[in-house]
Amino acid sequence: MTMLEIARGPAMQVSILIMVGGIGWRLAGILLLRRRPQRAAPRHGFVRRICGGLSAILSRFIPRRTFRRGTAVSVVLSAVFHLGLAVVLFGGAPHILLIRQITGLTWPGLPKGIVVMASGLTLASMIALLVRRMTHPVLRLLSTVDDYLSWLVVFLPVFTGILLSGETIGGYATLLSLHILSVELLLVWLPFGKLMHGLLVFAGRGAMGVTFARKGAAT
Amino acid sequence: MNSPVVAPSRAATVDDAGRVDQAMRGFLAEIGSGAALAMEACVHCGRCAEACHFYVQTGDPRYTPIHKIAPLRQAYQREVGPFAFAYRLFGLTPRVTAGQLATWQDLIYDSCNMCGRCSLICPMGIDIAGLVEQARHGMFDAGLAPADYLGVLAEKEHATGSPFGLTRAQFRDMLHQVGRTHDVVMHVDEPRADIVPTVSSVDLKTYPASMAAIAKILNHMGAAWTFRTDGFDADNASLTAGDRAGQRAITLSIVRAAMECGAGTVVMPECGHSFTEMRWEAANTFGRSLPFRVLQITELLAEGLADGRIRVNRVAQTATYHDACQLSRRGGATAAPRVVLHALGIDVREMADSGDTGWCCGGGGGVALIKRAQALRAHAFEIKRRQVEATGADTMYTSCSGCRQTLDHGGKSVNWTTTVASLLELVAANLKD
Ligand code: SF4
Ligand code: SF4
C-alpha cells in the first residue's frame, strides 16, 4: 500500500471515525447536563426569542460600534483567516471535485489566481494570529497548549495545500499524501480542542440570544 | 504558597485542603448545560478584555473577563466536562489549589461587577457574568468572600433577613418616621394590597427620601399598596457574596409576603441586582411561576405615565442618564427610564455608551462593599466621568441607589460638580396635584 493509498483509505476512515465519535461524545457531555429551568414570565414571546437567537448568531460576526476600535486587529485577522479558508475550501477546483465525489453536489470553481491569493492571505493571517498570540499580554495569559496545537493542525493543511497547488517541491503523490494526512490530523484533533468552536459558535450565540431576548435585553 | 484570606467567622472551621474541597463543590454544584457550553466554547480570543472597564483602564491582563473564572473552568474541565476522565488520568488539568483560590479572590470579587458588558463583545456568546456568579458560590462556600462589608452584610442578611440586622419593628418605625419627615402617608403591613413595594438597604441607610418618594407616587396613583415588614429588604447582598442559601431566603421572604396580602404587583426599588433576582430568578427559586408581576420602579412609572395614573409637571432641565447594568443590559428594562425622562420633558443627552452598552459605575456585583476594591472602583468611575462630561449635562439621573452611591463617592473624591440624582425622586417631586 502506498502512502497515498493509506492516506485515502484506512487513515481517512479512522480519522473520520474519531472525529464523529469525539464530536458526539463532547456534545453529549455538554447537552446531557441538566438544564436550568426558566420559570420567570418572559418579556417576549416564542417568536421574538427565536429571532433573538438568530440575530445573535448573525450579529456577533461584527462587533458593536463601541467595541470596534478595541477589537479591530483581532476581528480583521480572524475574518481574513476564516474567509480565506472558505474561499480555498469551497472555491478550489480539487476540493469541489472531492465534494462532488462524496456528495454529488457541485458548483463552478473560482479562478486559480483567486484561490492562490486566498490561500496566501490565509497563511499570512495565521502567522499574524500566531505572532499576536505569542506577544499580546492578554492572549499570552489565556493561551494553552490547545491554542497552539489547534493552530498547527490548521496550518499544516493550508501549508501543504499551497505547496501542492504550486507543485513546488517533492512529487505530486507525496505532496498530496502529506496534504491529506494533515487534514486527517485536523479531523482527529477537532473534537478535543478549540476547533470545536466551528460547531459550538452557533449553539453558544443562539443560546445566549434566546436567553437575553427572553428578558428583553440586548442580544 | 499563599493562603486565601478567610472570613474571620469561618477561619477556624477547616484547613486549606478542606477549603479547596468546599470551593470545588460550590463551583460545580450548579453546572448545567448552559454553563458547560459557555466554558467549552471559549476560543481564547481575548476580545472580552476590551469590554471590561478594569482591563481597559489598567491594561492589566489579569482583568481579562474570562481569566477571572479560570479556577471554575479548571474545576469543570477536571471533574465534569466531557473529557474529564482524560484530564484526570493523564494529569492534563491539575486540581485547583488553595494558592489559586487566594490569587483569584480579588479577581472573582473585587474586579467583577457582574455587569455583563463582556458578554456583549464575546464572539461565542459567553455570559461571563453568569459564570462569575457561579464561581462566587464556590468561594463563599469555602469562606472566601471578602471579609469586610460584603461578607459581613451577607452574613447578617442570611441570619436576620436584613443586611443591617433590622427587625420588623425597627423597619416599621423607620417607615413611619420617613412618612412623618416627608409628610406622606405610609401603608405598612396592610392585610390586603394590590401593590407591594420593596426597599434597598442603600435607601434605608443613605437615601430614605426614596422610600417617601415611592409612597407618594403610589398614593398619587390611588393604589391599594403596602410595605410588608415580613419581606421588605430586596437588596440581596447574599446574591453578590455568593451565598445561595441567603439569596434564597431573602427572595422567598418577599415572595411569601406579597402572596400573604394577595398582591398582583411587586415593585422593586431603585436597585439593580434586586431587580434581576426578583424578576428573572425568583420564580426558579420558588419552583413555579410567581403569582404576581415584578416591576422595577421605573417600569411602574413608565406604565403609570402611559395610562394616566401618574401625571407630572414638565421639568426644564438638561440631564444625562446612567443605566444600571442589571436594569438594562441584564434586566431588559432599558426603555422605561427614557419614557419617564421624556414625559418629564427633560432634554436627555445620552452618553457615548448608554443603554445596553453603558459602562458600569464600578460598584455593581457588591464591589461597592469591598473596601480593598476602592482603587479599582476609581478606574471605573473615570470612564463614567469622561463620558458624562462629554454630554455637557450637569445632572445625571439614575434608577439604582447602589450606582448613585458609588457615583456620589467617586464624584466626591475628585470634587466633581455633576449632580447624581434619583429618577424616582424627580418624579415624586414633580407630581401634578
Ligand atoms: S461582567 Fe463586567 S466587570 Fe465583570 S468581567 Fe465582565 S465587563 Fe468586567
Ligand atoms: S471574548 Fe469570549 S471567546 Fe474570546 S476569550 Fe473572552 S470569553 Fe473567550
Structural notes for this entry:
The complex is a heterodimer of chains A (219) and B (433). Chain A is an all-alpha fold and 219 residues long. Chain A has a single domain (3-24, 67-215), classed as Up-down Bundle (Fumarate Reductase Cytochrome B subunit), CATH 1.20.950.20. Chain A is 77% helix and 0% strand. Chain A contains 10 helices and no strands. Chain A has helices at 3-8, 10-31, 46-59, 65-91, 93-103, 112-135, 137-142, 145-166, 172-189, 197-215. Chain A is globular and about 65 Å long. The model of chain A has no long low-confidence stretch (mean pLDDT 96). Chain B is of the alpha/beta class and 433 residues long. Chain B folds into 3 domains: 8-147, Fumarate Reductase Iron-sulfur Protein, Chain B, domain 2, CATH 1.10.1060; 153-304, Rossmann fold (3-Layer(aba) Sandwich); 307-429, Rossmann fold (3-Layer(aba) Sandwich). Chain B has helices spanning 16-28, 33-41, 53-58, 70-79, 84-89, 98-110, 117-121, 128-141, 149-160, 168-182, 201-205, 209-220, 237-241, 244-260, 272-286, 297-307, 335-343, 374-391, 401-413, 423-429; strands at residues 195-197, 265-268, 293-296, 318-322, 347-348, 395-398, 419-422. In chain B, strands 5-4-6-7 form a 4-stranded parallel beta sheet, sandwiched between helices. In chain B, strands 1-2-3 form a 3-stranded parallel beta sheet. In chain B, strand 4, helix 17 and strand 5 form a beta-alpha-beta unit. The longest helix of chain B is centred in the C-terminal third of the chain and has 18 residues, at 374-391. The mean pLDDT of chain B is 95. At the A-B interface, helix 2, helix 4, helix 7 and helix 10 of A face helix 2, helix 7 and helix 15 of B. One iron/sulfur cluster (SF4) binds at residues 42-48, 66, 122-124, 126, 128 of chain B.
